[in-house]
Each structure stands twice: as structure tokens, then as C-alpha cells.
Amino acid sequence: MPYAGRLTLYFFLTPVLLWLFLLIVIPHIDLFVISMQVENDDGDMVWSLLNYQAFFEEKIYWMTFVRTALYAILTTLLTFIITFPVAFYITKVLSIKYSGFFTILLLVPFWVSELVRIYGWMILLRESGVFNHFLLQLGLIDVPIEMLYNDISMVMGLVYTSMLFMVVPLISSLEGLDDSLIEAAYDLGASKPVIFAKIVIPYILPGITSGSIVVFMLTLGNYLTPNLMGGKNSLWFTEQIYNEFIASFNWNQGAAFGFLLLVLSTFIIWLGLKLTRQNLSRALS
Amino acid sequence: MIRSLPSGKTYRYGYLLYVSFFYLFLFSPLLITCVLAFNDSNFPGLPWEGFTLDWFFADEQYRTGVFHDDRNLSALWVSLQTAIAVSLLSLILGTMAAFLFEQERFPFKQPLFFLSLTPLVIPGVILGISILLASNTAGLYFEEHWGIDIEILRPSFWLVVLGQMSFISTFVMLVVSARLKKFDPALEEAALNLGATRPEVIRLITIPYLKPALIGAGSVAFLMSFENFNTTLFLIGSDTTLPVSLYLQVRDGSTPLINAIAFILIVSTSLLALINLLASQRHKDE
Questions:
Q1: Residues A211-248, buried b or exposed e (16+ Cβ, 10 A)?
Q2: Are residues B161 and B82 in contact, defined by beta-carbon separation less than 8 angstroms?
Q3: Cβ-based contacts under 8 A for chains A and B
Q4: Cα B72 vs. chain centroid, distance in angstroms?
Q5: Are B30 and A195 an interchain contact pair (Cβ–Cβ within 8 Å)?
Q6: Each residue's pLDDT tens digit, A43-56
Q7: CA neighbours within 13 Å on the CB side: how many for B18?
Q8: B118-132 pLDDT, tens per residue?
Q9: CA nearest to B97 within chain A
């Protein structure tokens, strides 16, 4: 816009620069700097790689890291497998009259705080919970079973919390898919698996990518669900960070863990974008 | 297969069954939480002991209802204040960023735009700890070199606001940009030709055009802030927000009091969602 003066440019640019540099760039540089320092015997901060060395030497640290990464990938996959049929049903199978209503119904639970949703699952699944009450009443079991605090309940909770971020991009890309493409393939004799593999999935790949990126990132950084629904042994990497910061008060170690988590999430997102040939701005908007 | 194509009975009913199960899975935790808020029992579970409103209104030794529970009420108040501050500030910042990237030309625009997207892909825990570390470093620096103690740099209400703003602004920016892209610049040019100044054009033409996006982004920003846990956890001072306070209570065992709070949250957020939806629907019809 030629008539827009320099003044308007600076008016918009200054707050944006302040935001990005003061709240994003500098804090992350500081995170890295602090992760490269340790306190020596005199109480001074000195440069060192000890924090990273501790990560690779202590089995529990890197095991938790690998576990968290693998479970986050598993959660992303499961979220896609569970929500894709629903997204397809709403956009392509259900009568158009109802599809708006069912889409909205899908969104409602996610307006409610994650903590409330997790709490609901805790009431349902725990030893004295609602499921056990019904199973006992029906005489299917004699003693209550603990269904909470294991890896399965944790993954289920993670899938439940992140479904929305997968289903919304899936629905919007499926809405763009012209039905006549599927009809043409059907008329030419393609079977259902072929139609899905050759037409539907390739068409909605951008939607799958953006959904997967957000779900993966949110799962990796989740603290509440693994903490409240996972067992004593299902430690999540964010819990390690929390322990270093709040319990052990070893901020340097915590910063190193935080930086490693940042590297992991950046790497996997980059890989996802590369494999599907997308860029970040397209995937997010 | 799809609406216009024939499909077998097994496929149709099997599919319907799956989708029904999905919706059951989606709503069962919320429904059970709401129902048990009215159970006359000291433990949030079955059997059903009868209907009561004690968990909302009671003020007895062993039963304190939500409206007499100071701990949760003050946490709720802190959360509301935080959410109002964050949604207003992010709305201003995000809209300015949208104007910057949609309408201005300047060097390094692409890298800066990329940078402005990153807060949405950085895990919230990391945003929290890095802002905590940086504010602590800055606070120490100011104290050692200039001997001044800056309140805002210690875990506090305003640090939480800054932390949440850092990523909610990106969200606002994306929503406002999407609408700004569809804006016809001829409208602005006409106003400018008729003698309006640039600030006048923005105030009288562009902002009214953006209103639906601003309302939508503002209400989602409000909810994102109100519910935030990961980033807030590290930046919080003595004023606990509701999600953090609830987390501590749920972790240490719970009473139906939590269900009553959850009930209030579920009902009020659903109402807010509904209002937001109707507003956007009305706009679509226009």
C-alpha cells in the first residue's frame, strides 16, 4: 500500500517485534544458555555440558524421553484412526440436514477445560468408579478392578483430549472433496479400500498433516493427562521437567530437559512437513 | 459408501453403530460429572443417594458448597481476571500483527511471519519455563546492576498474562488474517480518496468489517486463557488460577464439590459456545 506511511508500519511493527523478541526469542535463547551452565562448588555459574551428560547417562531420563516420543506418535496415529471414520460420516454419509448439528456437538466437549474432562474419566474408571459399580451390580465381577493408572488409560485419555484438533481439519478438508470424484471411481469399479487409498486420503493429506502436527505437539507437552491418568511407572517427560523445576529446584537440569523436548518436537514437526511436502503457515491456517 | 451411492445393510448399520459409540465416548465423562454433582453422597461416585444441592449451597462443617468455598471462588476470580486481561491484550496484539503481515511491506517479512507462527507449535510447558527463566535472569540483572526490584518479573499475575499472551496472540493473528485476506481494498481506497485519514479508515471501515472475526477470536482467546494449565503452572505466583487449584484438589482426592464446579464450567462454556456459534451463524446468513 503506497500511501500507508512509515508511521503506520512502525505502529504495527513495534509491538509485534517486542512480543516476538521479548516473549519468544530471548526466553528460548536464555533457556539454552541456562541449560549449558551448572553451579560450581563456589556457587557460581560455569559453562558445562553436565546437564546433557546427565540426560544420556541416567537411564530413567532418556527412557522417559523415548517413551514420551513413542507414546505421542502412537496417540497421534490412534487419534487419526478413531476420528477419521467419524469425520467421513459427518461430511459424506450423514444427511446434510444433520451434519451441521453433529459437527457442533463434536466441538462442545472441547470447550470445557481439559481438567474437567480428565476428572470425568477418573470418576468413570477408578476402582470405586462408575464402571466398576455397574460391573459389580451386574455380577460380571466380584471385586472391583483398577482401570485407571496404567498406560492404556493414559493413552485413552491423551486420545480423548486431542481428538478435536484432528477432527476439525479432517472435516474441513473432507468438505472440499467433491463427491463426484468418489462416484466416478465407484462407477469405474473401484472397491472401497481403493477409493480410500487412492482418492480420499491423498486429497485430505494436508488436513491430516495439520491435525497430526497439533495433536503430536499437544500430546508431547501434555502434563495433566499422564499425571492424573497414568500409573506410577508411566512417567511423562514433562513431569521430569516439572520435577526439576518445582521439586528439585535444579533449573539448569530442567532447562536442558526443556531444550531437548523442544528439539524433539521441532524435529518431528519438521519431518512431518517434509514428508508431506507442506509448510508451516499452510498447515496452521 | 457416500450419500449418493448404494451401500449394504452391514456397512450402514455397522457404521452408524461406530459413530454412536464415538458420541457416547465423547459425552460420557461430562455427563457423569454433571450428574454426580447432585448426588447426596460425600464421595463422587455411585450408588445414587438422592438429589441434593448441597455441593452448590451448603455451608456446613463437612460439606461446603461452591458458593461458600473461598479457595475455589478466589481461584475463579483470578482466572476470570487473567482471561479478561489476556483476551483483550492478545486481541490488540494479534490484530496488529495481522495488519502488519497482510498490509505492510518491509524487509525480513517472511522470516518474521514464520517466527510469529512458532508459539503455536512450541509445547506450552517450554514456553512456561523459558519465560520463567528469562524473567528471572532479567530480574536478577536489574537488581544487581541498578538495585531495582521489578515486581512483574517474578512469578505473578502479570507474568501469567504475558506467558499466555505469547501464544494466544498467534491464534488471534491467524483468525483475523483469514478475514483480512477477504477484505476488498477498494473500500479503504474509496474512504482515503474521500479524505479520510488512515487511522480513521481503520476505525470506521476495517474494524467494523473485522468485527465477527474479532468476536470469535476474542471468545476463543478467553477460553484458551481460562483453561490454560501448562504454561500457567510455572509462572503462577501466590494467586492460583482455577485449573491449577482444581488440579491440586483432584490429585489429592476429591469430593463432589469438584463436580459442582465442573458442572458450572460445563454449562457456562457450552452457553458461551452457543452464543458464539449463533453470532457467527447470523453473520453467515447476512
A1: bbbbbbbbbbbbbbbbbbbbeeebbbbbbbbbbbbeee
A2: yes
A3: 253
A4: 19
A5: no
A6: 777 788 888 888 88
A7: 16
A8: 898 898 899 999 999
A9: A16
Report which of B151, B171, B159 is spatially closest to residue B85, judged by C-alpha positions: B159
pLDDT in tens, B41-68: 777 777 777 777 777 777 776 777 778 7
- For A93-122, letters b (16+ CB in 10 Å) and e give bbeeeebeeebeebebbbbbbbbbbbbbbb
Facing residue for A111 by CB, picked from B3, B223, B251: B223
From the list B132, B269, B277, the residue facing A112 with the nearest CB is B269
> What gap in Å lies between CA A166 and CA A191, rounded to an integer?
26
Domains of chain A and CATH, by start:
51-284 (1.10.3720.10)
Q: Do A26 and B134 touch (CB under 8 A)?
A: yes
Which element (helix H / strand E) includes B106? Answer: none
Residue A33's identity, in one-letter code, is V
* Low-confidence residues of chain B: pLDDT under 70: 1, 61, 280-286
- CA angle, residues A11, B148, A245, in degrees to nearest 5: 85
How would you class A31 by CB atoms within 10 Å of its CB: exposed for 0-12, middle for 13-18, buried for 19 or more?
buried
- C-alpha grid cell for residue A94? 450423514
Task: Name which of A112, A147, A252 to mutate to probe chain B: the one with the most chain B Cβ atoms within 10 A of its Cβ.
Answer: A112
Least CB–CB distance from B5: residue in A4, A25, A186: A186
Q: Which of B112, B126, B235 is nearest to A266 (CA)?
A: B126
What would the mean pLDDT of A88-116 be, rounded to a whole number?
84
Q: Please say if the pLDDT value at position A285 is more than 70.
A: no
| Interchain CB distance below 8 Å, A281 and B125 | no
What is the spatial distance between Cα A186 and Cα A11, in angstroms, rounded to a whole number?
Answer: 56
Contacts 24+ apart (CB under 8 A), A102-106: A103/A171, A104/B277, A105/B23, A106/A164, A106/A167, A106/B26
For residues B244 and A223, what is the distance between their CA atoms, to the nearest angstrom? 12
* Tens digits of residue pLDDT in A103-126: 888 888 878 888 889 999 998 888
Please give the grid coordinates belonging to residue A97. 440436514
Cβ count within 10 A of residue A70: 10
Question: At B105, is the secondary structure helix, strand, or coil?
Answer: coil
What's the farthest any 2 CA atoms get from each other in chain B?
79
pLDDT-derived band at A5, boundaries 50, 70, 90: low
Separate counts of helices (H) and strands (E) for chain A = 15, 2
Cα B177 to Cα A90, A171, B49, B214, B282, distances in angstroms? 28, 21, 53, 11, 21
Nearest CA in chain B to A223: B230
Instruction: Tell whether omega for the bond before B47 is within 30 degrees of 0, i.e. cis.
Output: yes
Nearest to A115 among B131, B137, B243 (CB): B243
A52, A55, A57, A62 alpha-carbon torsion, rounded to 10°: -140
H-helix or E-strand containing A189?
none
Domains of chain B, start order: 70-253 (1.10.3720.10)
